[in-house]
Amino acid sequence: MEADFVIVGAGSAGCAMAYRLSEAGASVIVIEHGGSDFGPFIQMPGALSFPMNMPRYDWGYRSEPEPRLNNRRLATPRGKVVGGSSSINGMVYVRGHARDYDTWADMGASGWGFADVLPYFKRMEHWHDGGHGGDPTWRGTDGPLHVSRGLRDNPLVRAFVAAGVQAGYEATGDYNGEKQEGFGPMDATIWRGRRWSAANAYLRPALKRPNCTLVNGLAERIEISEGRATGVRVLRRGRPEVIGARREVIVAASSINSPKLLMLSGIGPAKHLAEHGIDVVADRPGVGGNLQDHLEVYVQMKSKLPVSLFRYWNLVGKAYVGARWLTLGTGPGASNQFESAAFVRSAAGIEYPDIQYHFLPIAVRYDGRAAAQGHGFQAHVGPMRSTSRGTVRLRSGDAKAAPEIRFNYMSEDRDWEEFRTCIRLTREIFSQAAFAPYADGEIQPGPQVQSDAEIDAFIAEHAESAYHPCGTARMGRRDDPGTVVDPECRVIGVDGLRLADSSVFPRITNGNLNAPSIMVGEKASDHILGKTPLPAENVQPWINPAWATAQR
Fold it and tell me: How far apart are CA 510 and CA 345, in angstroms?
């Protein structure tokens, strides 16, 4: 079996590339170890807590013990299913700030500044603004990826935005447009009450073409002959098989599995590979390094009034939500319930937002456990630009073995300062008049947690990953020894091999990572096909005129 292009991973970027490469007439084989994404646990937005906790859909990775988080091993979900993590994520759609991509360009990823990537964000989007007043000149309206907004009919959702404005922050009609900073509606990859994953947006249309094929199997290594990638060795039905690539192999297996596959194939830090008996094809010390993520905490409040989603947090309520979604495609099951958001700056002198909020009209964990037996609400809050860095390393030379993942969370003093600020700013927001009819005391961290030491202890025990790992095969200049791929996503040291997913991010973007991961797949497709990149669009983001002297 062979094709012009062999893509490893049917995730966010892989699906986008399968669509664009097959659209151009090339033959494509996509290798995916996970199974089908059919079924209500994935397709119903309101069921989002289920798939990321199901071994059927998730690789089940956990970090190594994190020394600064009480040696806890944090969950690191990655999608093991068609659509990858876009099939198990929270469906929140955030491009990131324009300055993120300008920073990429400054770090050596030439051609990936905001002016360069904006046309690709617009090409991929089919944006439905819901009448909330965003600027369509910044957004795409005919791409394959539907992006919409919830009804925002819960009063707690509206109170969050009102409270932010009362606290002196900006309002924004579209944080994915000109103005990220402020409080406003949240975008989601949901369309007509259904999760609009990369599989639904890109892969299914591609598979309708005769030149695109999906193969189920575990990629064990990239076959390399005389310095060139020629195919992928896959374990299918318990037997090894080589799938040949006439033109190129493209790795898009996630920021955890992509560096793992490179190292299994002899591409990575030479000393580490030798420890596992792997012959070195290309000594690239940056493979598996530069691991970044977003951490967050949940600031949770009790509600005086029975207006939260807790009314459905019982067998009868869940049955009602599921039945309504299955029969009508509407109701609470048709939303991820993250319908309001905010991006703010933590201090004066910071040019653009470095704190993100997700608001949820119930007090509950990602694993589906309610924080309290009663009505409540919460804000997920965390810093966006930690300088802490970690690694992904092989546990063994066996492709079936999980890798060793060390994030080194909270390893910088500034991480603690920023998190304390996050919690104190959130408490101030929840104290505003907009929440007066609802707020009935703090569940978490709790009123007894006030001093720096008490807040630090709470963070160490309760901070959780926002599930945004990236950066483990960073893009940059070819003469930089820490670089893994060049600005055309070519793996340095091996011909005929590219890597395009969140692994290539030089620095983590400001917000959730699904949108920029898909964008990477879109833009990489043009590089792979040898096309001239889309013309740059030199528009400038809104920057708070008082940023140098005021926090808000």
Answer: 12
Report whether 347 contacts 551 (CB < 8 A): yes
- Run of H or E including 375: none
Q: Among all chains, which residue has been given the structure tokens 């002297």? A: 549
d(CA 196, CA 147): 8
CA distance 261 to 426: 41
Name the active-site residue from 146, 358, 380, 468.
468
d(CA 205, CA 358): 32
Token digits of residue 121: 């964000």
Residue 506 is classified by DSSP as: S
Q: Which amino acid is at 538?
A: N
Question: 468 catalytic, yes or no?
Answer: yes
Query: Is the link from the previous residue into 445 a cis peptide, with omega within 30 of 0?
Result: yes
Q: What are phi and psi of 346, to 5 degrees?
A: -80, -20
| Angle subtended at Cα 527 by Cα 522 and Cα 529, rounded to the nearest 5 degrees | 95
Q: Cα separation of 380 and 297, whole Å? A: 6
Q: What is the pLDDT of residues 419-469, one digit of tens each?
A: 999 999 999 999 999 999 999 999 999 999 999 999 999 999 999 999 999
Please say if the pLDDT value at position 129 is more than 80. Answer: no
Q: What is the 3-state secondary structure (H, E, C) of 113-170?
A: CHHHHHHHHHHHEEECCCCCCCCHHHCCECCCEEEEECCCCCHHHHHHHHHHHHCCCC
Which of 494, 502, 493, 497 minimizes the C-alpha distance to 521? 502
Report the distance separating Cα 376 and Cα 50, nearest Å: 21
Give the model's confidence band at 373: pLDDT under 50 very low, under 70 low, under 90 confident, else very high.
confident
Residue 130 confidence (pLDDT): 63
Q: CA 273, CA 266: separation in Å to the nearest integer?
A: 7
